[in-house]
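Exam revision sheet. Question 4 asks you to relate a sequence to its structure. Input first:
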Amino acid sequence: MSQFELDLHSEFLRADLFLNIGQPAEAARMLQPVVDAEPRNEAALELLARAYYGSAQLGPAEESLSRLVELAPSNGWARRALARTLERQSRPAEAAVHHRMADALGAA
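Answer key, structure tokens:
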């Protein structure tokens, strides 16, 4: 594993810690470079989406969740989170599609 990969992993872990202690905006700031370096990393993208959602940055949360749904269309959690993000932006018709998919996938 290269130093760059170790640094990305360390930043991912730090961001997870910051999210868990209630600092989602700081977590998002740490995660954005990780996702930029590894745009297909589903775990980093999911954590970034959670951080954006938790800090009420709904536009970036929607973008991250949409990318995650593109990468993993059967990810029920991502579908549900995208639906909730759209609802918070007063877009219930768009949210309904993702709620139905999440229901079909058995997501809570």
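Marking note for examiners. The radius of gyration is 14 Å.
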